[in-house]
């Protein structure tokens, strides 16, 4: 019998200050990728990824494609690493717990020394923080035990989301971290284009929701929902979706921004006999609910077996 993994405790309030510091650093790195990378649909060019050492950008072409750079929050070495294809390696140490203002200056100076000057809005995005990065001297908490716990959980989720992603033949995004909410996500698309949003919608929503989709994710919680949670929502939300049965039994429907969202508490997953099976059951049941109610061609979008190829 396969042994269940020892998943880490991640109580929301126990690492709030550290989570915010980590979130801010990843926003700075993510905003850099946004400005250094060619545009791709649905904002897929701004995201970060779970790596073997922490969280990073993967390769970013620079100098008209002649070179490339990788930027990584290296948890094992407690530093942010900027690795260039020219052989140059620059590091910003986090050992001494630098505040965000100090880190930001060191980081931007390091990029400038490589001839990189990404012109992004130098303040946190949608975090309820109005000060610019260079003013944030109050955020300097690095509880490495909790950072390791979060990374371990994100690695595990990354593997499960990739397995789930492989069960679908349609357009699917990479398994990626949106630094907006610091959530790990994967999204499936039916192939149907939606009517263009009116002028009151932000460019963020216009590009994100240009096509019919079902999105799945995990996030560590926020001020509105103060615990780690798996989620899924269908856009546009079809009538009656919340009448569909979710798996496992602990999963539920909840109202979110005026439409139903499927939720599964991390605590219920952690305590399950088969945690991976619980997450996969949740993702699949949420997909079935949304695709069935929205009238997707589920048979055509199903991955065939090797024998069927």
Descriptive overview:
There is one protein chain. The chain is an alpha+beta fold and 309 residues long. It is built from 7 helices and 12 strands. A hairpin with a 4-residue loop joins β7 and β8. The chain is globular.
Category from helices, strands and their pairing: alpha+beta
Q: How do the helices and strands follow one another from N- to C-terminus?
A: HEEEEEEHHEEHEEEEHHH
User: Tally the helices: what do you get?
Assistant: 7
Which residues sit in consecutive blocks of at least 5 with pLDDT less than 50?
A: none
- Overall, the morphology is globular
What is the strand and helix layout of this fold?
Elements (H helix, E strand, L loop, with lengths): L15 H21 L12 E2 L3 E3 L3 E3 L4 E8 L4 E6 L4 E5 L6 H14 L30 H22 L10 E3 L4 E11 L9 H6 L2 E9 L9 E7 L16 E5 L2 E7 H5 L4 H20 L3 H4 L8
Antiparallel strand pairs: 1-2, 2-4, 3-4, 4-5, 5-6, 7-8, 8-9, 9-10, 10-12, 11-12
Key terms for this structure?
309 residues; alpha+beta; six-stranded antiparallel sheet; 7 helices; 12 strands; globular
Short description:
By secondary structure, this protein is α+β, with helices and mostly antiparallel strands. It is built from 7 helices and 12 strands.
């Amino acid at each position: 019998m396969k042994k269940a993994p020892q998943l880490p405790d991640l109580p929301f309030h126990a690492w709030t200050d550290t989570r915010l510091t980590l979130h801010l650093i990843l926003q700075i790195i993510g905003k850099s990728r946004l400005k250094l990378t060619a545009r791709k649909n649905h904002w897929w060019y701004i995201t970060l990824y779970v790596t073997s050492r922490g969280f990073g950008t993967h390769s970013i072409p620079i100098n008209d494609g002649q070179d490339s750079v990788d930027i990584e929050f290296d948890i094992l070495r407690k530093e942010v690493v900027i690795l260039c294809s020219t052989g140059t390696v620059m590091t910003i140490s986090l050992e001494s717990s630098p505040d965000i203002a100090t880190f930001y200056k060191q980081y931007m100076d390091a990029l400038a020394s490589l001839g990189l000057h990404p012109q992004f809005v130098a303040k946190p995005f949608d975090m309820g923080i109005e000060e610019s990065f260079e003013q944030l001297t109050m955020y300097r908490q690095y509880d490495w035990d909790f950072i390791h716990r979060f990374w371990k959980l994100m690695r595990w989720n990354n593997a499960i989301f990739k397995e789930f992603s492989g069960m679908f033949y349609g357009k699917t995004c990479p398994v990626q971290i949106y630094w907006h909410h610091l959530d790990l996500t994967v999204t499936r698309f039916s192939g149907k284009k939606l009517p263009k949003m009116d002028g009151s919608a932000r460019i963020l929503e216009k590009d994100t929701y240009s096509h019919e989709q079902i999105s799945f994710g995990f996030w560590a919680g926020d001020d509105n929902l103060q615990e780690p949670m798996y989620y899924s929502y269908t856009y546009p939300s079809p009538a009656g979706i919340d009448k569909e049965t979710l798996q496992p039994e602990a999963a539920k429907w909840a109202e979110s921004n005026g439409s139903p969202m499927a939720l599964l508490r991390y605590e219920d997953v952690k305590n399950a006999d088969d945690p991976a099976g619980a997450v996969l059951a949740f993702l699949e049941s949420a997909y079935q609910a949304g695709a069935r109610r929205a009238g997707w061609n589920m048979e055509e979008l199903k991955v065939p077996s090797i024998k069927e190829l």
